[in-house]
Design goal:
Elements lengths: L1 E2 L18 E2 L1 H8 L2 H37 L1 H9 L15 H39 L1 H27 L7 H51 L6 H47 L36 E11 L4 E12 L2 E8 L2 E4 L2 E3 L4 E4 L8 E5 L4 E5 L3 H23 L16 E2 L9 H9 L2 H6 L39 H17 L19 H9 L12 H8 L25 H10 L12 H7 L7 H4 L20 E5 L11 H6 L30 H13 L9 E13 L9 E9 L2 E8 L2 E8 L3 E7 L5 E7 L8 E8 L4 H15 L7 H16 L34 H8 L24 E8 L3 H9 L5 H7 L3 E6 L3 E2 L5 E12 L5 E16 L3 E8 L10 E13 L2 E12 L7 H30 L5 H8 L9 E5 L17 H34 L2 H39 L14 H8 L15 H12 L16 H65 L3 H10 L1 H7 L4 H8 L4 H43 L1
Helix pairs in contact: 1-2, 1-6, 1-7, 2-4, 3-4, 4-5, 4-6, 5-6, 6-7, 12-14, 12-18, 14-18, 19-20, 22-25, 30-31, 30-34
C-alpha cells in the first residue's frame, strides 16, 4: 500500500468552505496502513491486556476485602456489646464513668457501622460497574481486535501470494488474484476502521468508569469524621475531576459523529484508490520503460501541477540469506522526501528506521530481467536494492518521484551553502544512519543476514498474552522454503546438544541486549538507554507514570520518584504531566525524552526526523496544516527592504577579506556538469544535535513541557519559548451565517509570548491549532460549579477561519491566577516597552506569590496549618475552606497586579511642526508606536534609505554609524557614487555625501531627524542643499504620525534662475519624501499593526550600536529589474524649456477651466429642474393637440352615424361584404357561375332543388330560410344554403378588395416600368442618330472605327445574323460590309426609333393632361 504524501488521502468535501480543525490522525494512518498504525494498534492492544489484568485483579481484591470485612460483623457486634458493663455491676460511678462508657459505645458503634456500610456498598459501587465494563465494552473491543488480527494476517498472506506471481502468468488469473487481494484489503480496512473507532470509545468509557467509581467511593468515605481534613483538602479537586468527566460525556456525541464521518470518507477514498481494473489488457503489463536516460536533468517540474514531489508506501525488498543462499521478499515501508530515500519497519518496541540514502547517490530504473512483475532496482556505490511495487501505477510513481527528487536536490545543492546544514554535509550526497540508536533498525538487518524472513516475523509478533496479540507482520515469499533454524527461537532444535543450545541462547540474548531490543515484558525491567542528563533526565525521572506511556524504570527508580528530592517542586506555570501524543507506540516516550535533550527542528522549512515522526505523529506531521498559520515578519525572505532583502548585498568595511561566497565551498565539492561521475559518498557519524537553550532561571515545568511542545508543533521557531501551559477544554464560536466548523477539543493550551497553541486529542481526533495573541481583544472569566470559564474575544476578520470567540473550560486551574496571567501576556504584547522573556516569566510567577501571601489560621500556633483545615461552623465535621472563595480571589480581581514602572506616555496627541520649513510634503498615520516607527526608518539594520538611493542612480552606498557630533546630537553620513552621461556623450563619476542628524530625541514621544542631501543632478548644486526634516510624533497607544517637511538652504545663491532651480529642487524633494512615506507604509504593513516595539528593534536594529561602516551594493539582476526611472542631471536650458512647456500647459488648462466654468455657470442658471419642466410642458401641449383632433373626428363620425340611423338607413353587415359572381364578371372577366358538375337536363328533382335555391333570400337572416316549405329536411337545406352563401359572399368581398388592390399596384408598376424603358430606348436612339451622322461625314476607316466604338450600333448590326458578324472579323471584306451595315442601321433607326419617339410624345401629352386636371381640381 502506497500513497503520495503531497496531499492527504481524504480531501475535504467541496460543500464545506473550510476543513474541520479536528484531524483523524489514527484513521488516516489506518487508511494508509502505515507502520505507525500497526505499531500503535499493537501498543494499544497490549495496553488493553494490561488494563484487563489490572481490573480483574482489582475486582477480585475488592470482593475479597468486602467479604472479609463483612465476616467480622458478628465479632464487631459482640465487641460493641461487651463495651457496656452489665446492669448487675454497680461499682462504677454513674455520673461520669457510666456516661463516658456510654458515649464511647455509641461513637464506636457509629464508626464501626460506617465501616461496615462502606464495605457492604463497595462491591455494588466499585466491583459491579467494572465487571459490566469487562463484559461489555472490553469484550466488544477484543472482538474488533481479533477481527483485525485475522484480516491483517489474511491480507498480508494474500498480497504476498499475489505479488509473487511471475510475468508469464495468464492475465485472467492475475485479475482473479487482484480481486482476491481487493476483497481481503476491504475486509482489513473495515477491521482497521472498526478498531480505530472502538479504541477511542473504550478509552473514554474507561476514563468515565474510573472517575465515577472513584468519585462514588470518595463520597461514601467522605462521611467518616476522622477523614474530614484529607477529604476537605482534596474534595474540590475530586468535584472538578467529576466535572471533567461530565464534560467529556456531553461532547462525546459530537466527536463520535465527526469520527464516523471521517471513517466513512477515508474508507471510501481508500477503497476507490485500490480498486483493481476489470480489463484483462491492464494485467498484461509487467514493467514500464525508464523515464529517461540523461539523469536528473530530464524531468521538468516547473508549471506541472501533477508531478509527484514526495512519496511513501509499502514495497517488497528482495533479500538473500542463509547457507545455501535463499531468496526471500520482505515488506517494508519506504519513503522518498526532502532529497533522501529511506525505510521504516515495525518492531515490538515501535517503528524503527534504516539508513537514509541521498537521492543523488541513487540510480533507480526498472528491473526488466526480474521474474516478478513491477520490479525496479535502486543502485548505490556499495549496494543494490531490488524492490517490487504492487501495481504498474505505483511503479511509475516511484520512478517519477526519484527523477523529480534528483532534479530538486541537484538544483538546491548548487545554490545552497552546506555550512548551514547539520554537519556541513548535504543529505542528498550522503548516506546517513539514524542519529538515535533507540530508533535504529540495524539489528533487524543483522538478524536478517543470519536468519531469514522468520526474523522479520518475530520482530513484528506481539508479546504473548491471554488473548494473543496484534500481528503487524510484513509479507514474505510463501514459495520459498522456511529456514532450518529460527533466530529468535529458544527451544532446543533437533540434533542440537545442550551446550550448543545454551550457547545459542546466550548469543541471542547478547544480540538483543546490544540492539536494545526486548519484549514487552522485559521492557519493564531493562532500563532505557535514553540520555540521563538535562531535560531528558527530568522527563524520565518525573514522568515515568504519565498517561499514555509505559513505565520503563526499575523499582528503585520508582522509589526515587515518590520521595521528594533536593530539587524544588515544579511551579504552576505548567502541569506536571504530559499530554497524550497523536499516535502512541512504545517509543513515543523516548521521542519526548530525546526532544528535550536535542534540537530536531530549527525552522519551519525543516521537518521532524522520520523515526521521531513515525512514533509520534505517524507517516506525516498532520498538525502542520493548522499549526503553522502565524507569519513572522522578521523572517520574511521576500522583504525588499528588510535584513533578508534579496536585491541588496551588505558588506562590512574591514571584514570583506574574510567573507566567502556562499557557493564557493559547494562548487569545490561537486562538478557543475549535469553528469556527476562517482561522487564521494559521505557517511557522517551521528552527531548529537545541540540541546535547546533556555534563559537563566527558566522554570523546570516549562522545560519539561517544551520537549513535547516541539514535537506537537514542529514549525515553531526556537526563539519562541513557552511561558504558560495549562489543561483545558475549548469550543469556538463563529458568525451565524458562516460555514465554519467548530474547533472543539480537550487537552493542553501552550502559550508563548506571541501566540497561543491549542492541542487536543479526544475520541481519536487531534486538534493542533494556532492563534496569535494579537487577535485577542479581551479576556473575560466566570467561575462555575463543575468548571471555570475563560472567554477569548477575537478581532473580526483576523482569524483565518472566522472565529469570533473561543470558550475555554478549566477544571484544575486557579481561575483568578490564570485570568491575571492571560491579561498580563496580552497587555505586555501591546505595551510600548514589552518585557523580555526573563522579566515576563518573573512577572507571571510573582502573580502567584502575591496571591499566596496569606496568613495561617492561627498566628500564635507553632505548627503550620493548611488553608484547607476544617473550620468549626457548627456542623458535626466542619467544612473545608474553598480556595475559590478565599479573600485573595476577590483581591486579585479588584486590585489586580501592580504594574511595573514604565514610562508615562502623554494622554493627548503630540503636535510638532519645525520652524523655517518651506513645505509640508506628506503625512502618514501608523498603528505602531513612535519608537517602533523610528527604528523602522533609522535602525542600524534598516535598508530603507539605501534602497531609495539605489533608485536614484546611487552605487556602492557607504552608510556610516551613528556618532555624536560637536553639538551632542547623533549623526551619520551616506557616501555614494553616481555615474551619468554628460552633454557631450562622455561618462562622469561623482562622489556625493549626505548627512542625517537627530535633532530631537524624546523617547516614545517625538523624534526629529534632519536629512541634508546634495542636489547633484541640478544646476548650481554647489551653492545650496536640500533639507528634509522627518518628524515622528506620538498620537496614542500604539499609534504615531509621520510628517515630512522640506526646504532649500542657499549659501551661494546664483544671480540668474534662482527661483526656477529652487522650485525644481523642492519638487524633487517632495517626490523623494512621498517615496519615503510609501516605503515606510509598506514596512509598517509587513511589520504588522499593533506590533511590539521589541520586534521592530529586532528586525531593524537599534540606533547607535553599529560601529562599522556598511557598504550596500545591488545584486547583478537588480539593475535590470529597477521599477522606477533613474534621475538624470539637468541644465538651465532644460529647466527653462520645461518651464515654458509647463507655462503653455498651464495656459491651455486655464482656458479649458474657464470654458468649463462658463458651462458650469450656465448650468447653474438653467438648472436641470427647469429643463425637465419645460420638456414636460411641451409634451403635454403636443398630446393635447393630437388628442383633440382625434376626438373631434370621432365625434363627427358618431353624429353622422346617428343621423343616418334616425332616418332609417343602417349598415347591412352581411351585404357590406357579400359579392356574387355576377359582380365579379366585370373585374375578373369571367362567365357566370355554373355548376362544375354535369347537371341533369329536364329533371324534375333537380328543378325542385333549384327552386329551393332561388327562393333563398340572401339579405334575410339564415334562420328564417325555408319557412314556407313543408318538410323539415327542405327547411334545413334552405337554412344551410343561405348561411353558407352568406359566408361565401363575405369571402368573395375580401377577395375582390384584395384583387382590386393587387390590380392597381400591378398597373402602376407596369406603367412606371414602361416609362423608364421608353426613356432609355429614346436615349439609345439618340446615340444611333449620332453614329449615323458621324458615319455620313467621314471616310471608310473612320466609319469602321466609329462603328466599332458604338455599342448600340454593334448590337443593331448583330441582329442581321451570324453572317454579318463573320464578315466583320475579316479585314479584306471591310468595305463591302460597311455599306451594307449602314443601310441596315438606317432602316432600323427609321422603323424602331420613330415608334419610340411617337410613344414618348403620347406619354408626355398624357402627363400634361393629368397635370392640368389636377390643377383644376
Amino acid at each position: 500500500m502506497a500513497t503520495a504524501v503531497a496531499a492527504p488521502p481524504t480531501p475535504a468535501p467541496s460543500t464545506i468552505k473550510h476543513p474541520s480543525p479536528a484531524i483523524p490522525v489514527i484513521l488516516r494512518e489506518a487508511g494508509l496502513d502505515s507502520p505507525s498504525f500497526r505499531a500503535a494498534a499493537l501498543y494499544f492492544a497490549e495496553q488493553v491486556d494490561a488494563i484487563e489484568r489490572w481490573l480483574e485483579g482489582y475486582v477480585r481484591t475488592t470482593a475479597k476485602l468486602s467479604h472479609d470485612v463483612l465476616g467480622l460483623e458478628e465479632t464487631i457486634n459482640t465487641y460493641l456489646g461487651k463495651m457496656i458493663p452489665p446492669p448487675t455491676v454497680n461499682a462504677v460511678d454513674h455520673d461520669y464513668t457510666a456516661l463516658a462508657l456510654k458515649r464511647f459505645s455509641e461513637g464506636s458503634r457509629d464508626w464501626w457501622m460506617q465501616i461496615l456500610n462502606v464495605a457492604r456498598n463497595m462491591d455494588t459501587m466499585s466491583a459491579e460497574p467494572i465487571r459490566s465494563f469487562l463484559q461489555g465494552d472490553l469484550r466488544t473491543f477484543k472482538e474488533a481486535r481479533r477481527t483485525l488480527e485475522q484480516t491483517q494476517k489474511g491480507f498480508d498472506t494474500t498480497l504476498a501470494r499475489y505479488v509473487s506471481q511471475s510475468k508469464t502468468k495468464e492475465p485472467s488469473s492475475l485479475r482473479e488474484d487482484a480481486f482476491a487481494v481487493y476483497e481481503t484489503r476491504k475486509a482489513y480496512l473495515k477491521a482497521s476502521m472498526d478498531f480505530c473507532f472502538f479504541a477511542p470509545q473504550l478509552r473514554l468509557n474507561l476514563d468515565k468508569l474510573l472517575v465515577r467509581v472513584s468519585f462514588d467511593l470518595w463520597r461514601e468515605m467522605k462521611r467518616s469524621r476522622d477523614a474530614a481534613g484529607c477529604f476537605g483538602k482534596y474534595g474540590h479537586e475530586m468535584d472538578r475531576v467529576r466535572g471533567w468527566s461530565k464534560e467529556m460525556e456531553l461532547s462525546e456525541s459530537m466527536f463520535k459523529r465527526e469520527l464516523q464521518i471521517a471513517r466513512r470518507d477515508i474508507g471510501e477514498s481508500t477503497l476507490a484508490a485500490f480498486k483493481p481494473s476489470r480489463e484483462i489488457d491492464d494485467y498484461s503489463a509487467s514493467t514500464v520503460p525508464f523515464l529517461g536516460s540523461r539523469g536528473p536533468m530530464n524531468v521538468t517540474t516547473t508549471g506541472q501541477a501533477a508531478v509527484i514531489m514526495e512519496k511513501q508506501g509499502w514495497l517488497f525488498l528482495r533479500t538473500i540469506t542463509g547457507k545455501p543462499s535463499r531468496t526471500n521478499w520482505i515488506r517494508r515501508w519506504y519513503y522518498c522526501r526532502d532529497g533522501i530515500f529511506g525505510w521504516l519497519v515495525n518492531s515490538p518496541q515501535g517503528v524503527l528506521q534504516g539508513d537514509e540514502i541521498g537521492v543523488l547517490l541513487c540510480n533507480a530504473k526498472p528491473a526488466i530481467s526480474e521474474e516478478r512483475r513491477f520490479c525496479f532496482e535502486v543502485k548505490t556505490k556499495n549496494q543494490t536494492m531490488l524492490l517490487q511495487a504492487e501495481t504498474q501505477a505505483q511503479l511509475m510513481e516511484w520512478l517519477e518521484v526519484f527523477e523529480v527528487a534528483k532534479k530538486k536536490a541537484f538544483e538546491a545543492s548548487v545554490s545552497r551553502d552546506n555550512s548551514s546544514l547539520p554537519g556541513g554535509v548535504d543529505p542528498a550526497f550522503s548516506i546517513t544512519p539514524p542519529s538515535l540508536p533507540e530508533f535504529s533498525a540495524k539489528s533487524l538487518d543483522a538478524q536478517a543476514e543470519d536468519g531469514a524472513p522468520a526474523t522479520e516475523r518475530s520482530a513484528n509478533l506481539p508479546v504473548p498474552g491471554p488473548e494473543g496479540g496484534l500481528v503487524p507482520r510484513p509479507s514474505f515469499d510463501l514459495t520459498s522454503a522456511p529456514p532450518k533454524r529460527s533466530v529468535t527461537s529458544l527451544a532446543r532444535e533437533e540434533g542440537e546438544s545442550g551446550r550448543e543450545h545454551a550457547a545459542r541462547i546466550m548469543q541471542k540474548l547478547d544480540l538483543h541486549r546490544k540492539a536494545t531490543f526486548a519484549s514487552g515484558t522485559d521492557m519493564a525491567s531493562v532500563p532505557s538507554q535514553a540520555p540521563i542528563g538535562g531535560i531528558a533526565s527530568l522527563i524520565s525521572a518525573s514522568h515515568g507514570l504519565l498517561p499514555g506511556y509505559t513505565t520503563g524504570a526499575p523499582k528503585q527508580h520508582q522509589l526515587v520518584q515518590v520521595l521528594p528530592g533536593p530539587e524544588s517542586q515544579p511551579g504552576s506555570l505548567a502541569p506536571p504531566t504530559l499530554v497524550k501524543p497523536p499516535t502512541t507506540t512504545y517509543l513515543s516516550k523516548t521521542a519526548v525524552v530525546y526532544s528535550g535533550d536535542r534540537v530536531f527542528v530549527a525552522n519551519q522549512s525543516q521537518t521532524l526526523p522520520t523515526a521521531i515522526m513515525a512514533n509520534y505523529w505517524g507517516s506525516n506531521a498532520w498538525g502542520r496544516e493548522y499549526s503553522s498559520k502565524i507569519n513572522r515578519p522578521d523572517i520574511d525572505l521576500d522583504d525588499p527592504f528588510g535584513p533578508n532583502s534579496p536585491s541588496i548585498k551588505m558588506i562590512t568595511v574591514g571584514d570583506s577579506e574574510e567573507l566567502k561566497s556562499p557557493s564557493s565551498t559547494h562548487k569545490k565539492a561537486i562538478s557543475m556538469d549535469a553528469r556527476i561521475k562517482h561522487p564521494k559518498i559521505v557517511q557522517p557519524t551521528p552527531e548529537k544535535p545541540p540541546p535547546e537553550s533556555f534563559p537563566r532561571d527558566y522554570p523546570i515545568e516549562l522545560k519539561t513541557n517544551s520537549a513535547q511542545f516541539r514535537l506537537l508543533f514542529p514549525g515553531v521557531p526556537l526563539d519562541e519559548k513557552l511561558v504558560l501551559v495549562f489543561r483545558a477544554s475549548w469550543i469556538s464560536t463563529s458568525e451565524a451565517d458562516s460555514m465554519v466548523p467548530q474547533m472543539a477539543g480537550s487537552g493542553r493550551i501552550y502559550i508563548t509570548s506571541d501566540n497561543m497553541y491549542f492541542y487536543g486529542h479526544q475520541m481519536g481526533l487531534v486538534v493542533a491549532y494556532t492563534i496569535s495573541l494579537d487577535t485577542i481583544t479581551e479576556v473575560t472569566a466566570a467561575p462555575g460549579r463543575d468548571c471555570d470559564f475563560i472567554f477569548l474575544h477575537l478581532n473580526q476578520g483576523t482569524d483565518s477561519l472566522g472565529y469570533t470567540r473561543i470558550t475555554i473550560k478549566t477544571f484544575l486551574e486557579d481561575l483568578d491566577l490564570l485570568h491575571a496571567r492571560l491579561n498580563l501576556l496580552i497587555d505586555d504584547l501591546q505595551a510600548e516597552e514589552p518585557m523580555d522573556l526573563q522579566e515576563l516569566i518573573r512577572a507571571l510567577i510573582n502573580l502567584e506569590k502575591e496571591d499566596s501571601d496569606k496568613q495561617s489560621p492561627s498566628m500564635d500556633s507553632w505548627e503550620e496549618i493548611s488553608e484547607h483545615t476544617p473550620i468549626d461552623d457548627g456542623t458535626a465535621a466542619g467544612r473545608a475552606v474553598n480556595p475559590r472563595y478565599h479573600h485573595a480571589a476577590h483581591k486579585s480581581r479588584s486590585k489586580g497586579r501592580k504594574p511595573l514602572p514604565k514610562f508615562q506616555l502623554p494622554t493627548n496627541a503630540v503636535i510638532y511642526e519645525p520652524e523655517d520649513m518651506q513645505r509640508k510634503v506628506c503625512e502618514r498615520n501608523f498603528e505602531i508606536s513612535a519608537k517602533a516607527c523610528f527604528h523602522v526608518l533609522f535602525g542600524d539594520k534598516s535598508f530603507v534609505f539605501p534602497k531609495l538611493y539605489f533608485e536614484r542612480r546611487a552605487q556602492h552606498i557607504a552608510q556610516g554609524p551613528w556618532k555624536t557630533n560637536e553639538a551632542g546630537n547623533m549623526q551619520r553620513q551616506f557616501r555614494f557614487k553616481v555615474n551619468y552621461a554628460t552633454r557631450l556623450g562622455g561618462e562622469r563619476e561623482e562622489e556625493v555625501t549626505d548627512e542625517q542628524t537627530i535633532e530631537l530625541f524624546s523617547d516614545h514621544v517625538t523624534y526629529v531627524v534632519t536629512h541634508v542631501k546634495t542636489p547633484w543632478h541640478l544646476p548650481h548644486a554647489n551653492g545650496f542643499k536640500l533639507v528634509t526634516k522627518i518628524v515622528i510624533t506620538h498620537v496614542a497607544k500604539s499609534k504615531c504620525k509621520l510628517a515630512i517637511f522640506t526646504k532649500v538652504v542657499w549659501f551661494k545663491p546664483p544671480a540668474f534662475a534662482k527661483n526656477m532651480v529652487e522650485r525644481q529642487a523642492l519638487d524633487d524633494a517632495g517626490q523623494d519624501a512621498e517615496e519615503l512615506a510609501e516605503v515606510a507604509t509598506d514596512q509598517v504593513r509587513k511589520l504588522g499593526h499593533h506590533s511590539r516595539t521589541k520586534r521592530a528593534i529586532q528586525v531593524y536594529g537599534n540606533v547607535g550600536l553599529q560601529t562599522q561602516v556598511l557598504v550596500f551594493a545591488p545584486n547583478e539582476a537588480d539593475g535590470a529589474s529597477a521599477k522606477k526611472a533613474q534621475v538624470n542631471p539637468r541644465t538651465i536650458g532644460q529647466m527653462l524649456l520645461e518651464t515654458i512647456r509647463s507655462f503653455a500647459d498651464s495656459v491651455a488648462s486655464s482656458l479649458m477651466m474657464w470654458a468649463f466654468a462658463g458651462v458650469k455657470k450656465l448650468w447653474n442658471v438653467v438648472t436641470a429642474q427647469r429643463i425637465i419642466l419645460a420638456l414636460l410642458g411641451f409634451s403635454v401641449l403636443t398630446n393635447v393637440v393630437f388628442s383633440s383632433q382625434g376626438t373631434a373626428a370621432w365625434w363627427s363620425e358618431r353624429r353622422a352615424a346617428g343621423f343616418m340611423r334616425r332616418i332609417g338607413v343602417g349598415p347591412n353587415v352581411v351585404m357590406s361584404k357579400a359579392i356574387f359572381i355576377a359582380d365579379l364578371d366585370d373585374a375578373a372577366r369571367s362567365s357566370v357561375a355554373l355548376p362544375s358538375w354535369p347537371s341533369p337536363q329536364d329533371s324534375y328533382c333537380y328543378a325542385t332543388f333549384k327552386s329551393i335555391t332561388n327562393v333563398t333570400d340572401v339579405d334575410a337572416p339564415f334562420e328564417s330560410a325555408g319557412a314556407g316549405l313543408a318538410w323539415s329536411s327542405s327547411r334545413a337545406t334552405a337554412r344551410r344554403l343561405r348561411q353558407t352563401r352568406q359566408k361565401l359572399g363575405s369571402y368573395r368581398h375580401d377577395l375582390l378588395v384584395a384583387m382590386r388592390t393587387v390590380n392597381a399596384v400591378e398597373k402602376e408598376m407596369l406603367h412606371a416600368e414602361w416609362e423608364n424603358w421608353l426613356l432609355d430606348e429614346n436615349h439609345r436612339c439618340e446615340q444611333v442618330q449620332a453614329v449615323l451622322e458621324a458615319w455620313n461625314g467621314s471616310s471608310l476607316d473612320a466609319q469602321a472605327e466609329v462603328l466599332r466604338g458604338s455599342e448600340v450600333a454593334q448590337k443593331v448590326l448583330g441582329v442581321s445574323g451570324e453572317k454579318g458578324k463573320e464578315k466583320d472579323k475579316d479585314a479584306k471584306d471591310k468595305d463591302k460590309d460597311n455599306s451594307k451595315r449602314r443601310e441596315n442601321l438606317q432602316s432600323w433607326y427609321e422603323e424602331y426609333c420613330g415608334s419610340c419617339r411617337s410613344d414618348r410624345e403620347s406619354l408626355m401629352q398624357e402627363r400634361e393632361r393629368l397635370s392640368l386636371a389636377a390643377t383644376v381640381l
